[in-house]
């Protein structure tokens, strides 16, 4: 079908307030994962473009953005949110073309929440205070907060605008200047965002955007640049390790939101209808390409078969297909390479002794596009790679458990620690289990419910640091203590 009246956009860099090509004119194709067709071209940046962008951002640290009062900055950031909402339909269409996600998801969650990131952090500026400490009658200490400097924002492809604004809004609210490096697979909404920032009145050089790849390219050059003070990175754990090694040369501050292999724990006493409804989302929303998806499902043995029967039946009803059809629940995976990777895990599941209860294959009648049916696997144990490694697709494993000790043993036996969900109507058990799970976020009887004031981030190899509310400001600003002898 003709998806939308909005046309794909070609993507240029945005440096010092201007949209520009790469110095050598290099571009790469942007592919629509649901049709495998070329959407347009993307300027391919490298060290030279990063250098220009960082230079502009550094210069802007001495410009009008720094001298601006809080009222004016708040108004500009609010306007960015307003302009995102004003272009919501276009942004949602571009996001779905780029990622393959259903249009209802981009339109009702990703884009409105991107606008909210700006509204939230612009309001938050006014709540920030700093401490004073009196040392008897000897001295008075007070802390002042200042911007950190030039921040590099490196983003993944699964929630492109939502995650980019989650970094950009607090970085700007704290008074920094930035260079954004969006994922090479999803460049379009970042390009429109740069335009929106300009239209909202953000001065030239404050927001810069360089498109390109990660290793040995734009991403690596941003991490290595000596004038970049911090990197806020969301992406794979393995990439985080590479970035940490190279950022160590200039000792940059790092904020890391990395991979997850999150448990979804279901006790027999929970409300099964609610469990099924939410578990369909936490398993398959956005094709399972959300870091918070609950891809390891643990069910108390007495409820195991009943849960499986209902869950398989309901998952079978999910419509997979064209992201622009309103009935579609599961769209296309991001790329051919990722599709092959996910399919590789399904083959591995069989080799490891698992049973594919549902899915595991391309839906009939969809020959083009990287489509995969919701996939439910049983019969695997905790040591299997399919249970241990992040698959990042519409693939879940379901494992029974017999006791809380057995459960916690299995749940915590992973390198990851991003999030977890616990389903139970027993209040004491909810507290007990939530307290013992090794994860940065634990939901009880819900999933993905977020208040932006609360700390967000992972433990173990799922991340370093916290974002959200004051935590974001802590990362994006510097505190100086001034001590006055009385
Ligand atoms: P990725 O690590 O491959 O890429 C992320 C970004 O890093 C891209 O922009 C890429 O170009 C860049 N990059 C890659 N190598 C680099 C290098 N050497 N130096 C600098 N930049 C480099 O991740 P992805 O495949 O785009 O995203 C999926 C991953 O992101 C999953 O692991 C998922 O769990 C994770 N994720 C985590 C969160 C969270 O909040 N914890 C949120 C969303 C996604």
Name of the top-level CATH class of the largest domain? Alpha Beta
Number of helices: 16
- Radius of gyration from the CA trace? 23 Å
Q: How large a portion of the residues is in β-strands, by DSSP E?
A: 15-25%
Mean pLDDT comes to 97
Helix content: 25-40%
Q: Going by CATH, what is the homologous superfamily of the largest domain?
A: Aldehyde Dehydrogenase, Chain A, domain 1
The main pleated sheet reads as: 7 strands, mixed
The assigned structural class equals alpha/beta
The CATH architecture of the largest domain would be: 3-Layer(aba) Sandwich
Secondary structure elements and their pairing?
Elements: E1 13-15, E2 18-20, E3 27-31, E4 38-43, H1 47-60, H2 64-67, H3 70-86, H4 88-99, H5 103-124, E5 132-135, E6 139-147, E7 150-154, H6 160-173, E8 177-181, H7 188-200, E9 207-209, H8 218-224, E10 230-234, H9 237-247, E11 253-257, E12 263-266, H10 272-284, E13 296-300, H11 301-316, H12 336-351, E14 355-358, E15 375-378, H13 385-388, E16 395-401, H14 404-411, E17 419-423, H15 427-436, E18 441-444, E19 463-464, H16 469-476, E20 477-485
Parallel strand pairs: 7-8, 7-10, 8-9, 10-11, 12-13, 12-17, 13-16, 15-16, 17-18
Antiparallel strand pairs: 1-2, 3-4, 5-6, 6-20, 11-19, 14-15
Helix pairs in contact: 1-8, 3-5, 3-7, 4-5, 5-6, 10-11
């Amino acid at each position: 079908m003709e998806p939308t009246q909005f046309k794909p956009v070609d993507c240029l860099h945005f440096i010092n307030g201007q949209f520009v090509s790469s110095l050598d004119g290099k571009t790469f194709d942007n592919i629509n994962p649901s049709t495998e067709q070329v959407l347009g071209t993307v300027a391919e940046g490298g060290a030279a473009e990063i250098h220009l962008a960082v230079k502009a951002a550094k210069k802007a640290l001495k410009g009008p953005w720094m001298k601006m009062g809080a009222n004016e900055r708040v108004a500009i950031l609010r306007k960015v949110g307003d302009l995102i909402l004003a272009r919501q339909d276009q942004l949602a269409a571009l996001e779905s073309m780029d990622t393959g996600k259903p249009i209802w998801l981009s339109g009702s969650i990703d884009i409105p929440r991107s606008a909210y990131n700006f509204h939230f952090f612009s309001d938050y500026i006014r709540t920030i205070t700093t401490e004073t400490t009196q040392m008897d009658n000897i001295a008075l200490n007070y802390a002042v907060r200042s911007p950190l400097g030039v921040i590099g924002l490196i983003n993944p492809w699964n929630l492109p605008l939502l995650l980019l604004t989650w970094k950009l809004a607090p970085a700007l609210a704290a008074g920094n200047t930035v260079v954004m490096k969006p994922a090479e697979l999803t460049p379009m909404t970042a390009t429109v965002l740069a335009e929106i920032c300009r239209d909202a009145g953000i001065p030239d050089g404050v927001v810069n955007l360089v498109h390109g790849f990660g290793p040995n390219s734009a991403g690596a050059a941003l991490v290595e640049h000596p004038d970049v003070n911090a990197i806020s990175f969301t992406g794979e754990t393995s990439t985080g390790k590479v970035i940490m090694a190279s950022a160590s040369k200039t000792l940059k501050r790092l904020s890391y939101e990395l991979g997850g292999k999150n448990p979804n724990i279901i006790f027999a006493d929970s409300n099964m209808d609610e469990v099924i409804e939410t578990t369909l989302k936490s398993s398959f929303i956005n094709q399972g390409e959300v870091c918070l998806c609950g891809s390891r499902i643990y069910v108390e043995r007495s409820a195991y078969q009943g849960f499986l029967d209902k869950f398989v039946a309901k998952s079978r009803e999910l419509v997979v297909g064209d992201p622009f059809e309103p009935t579609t629940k599961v769209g296309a995976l991001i790329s051919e390479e990722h599709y092959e990777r996910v399919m590789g895990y399904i083959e591995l599941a069989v080799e490891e002794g698992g049973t594919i209860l549902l899915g595991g294959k391309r839906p009939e009648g969809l020959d083009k596009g990287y489509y995969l049916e919701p996939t439910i696997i049983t019969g695997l144990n905790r040591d299997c790679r399919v249970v241990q490694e992040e698959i990042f697709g519409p693939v879940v494993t379901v494992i029974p458990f017999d006791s809380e000790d057995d459960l916690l043993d299995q749940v915590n036996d992973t390198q990851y620690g991003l999030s977890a969900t616990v389903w139970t109507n027993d209040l004491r058990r909810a507290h007990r289990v939530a307290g013992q799970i090794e994860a940065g976020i634990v939901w009880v009887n819900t999933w993905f419910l977020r208040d932006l004031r609360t700390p967000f981030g992972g433990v173990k190899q799922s991340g370093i640091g916290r974002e959200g509310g004051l935590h974001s400001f802590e990362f994006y600003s510097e505190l100086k203590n001034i001590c006055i002898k009385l």
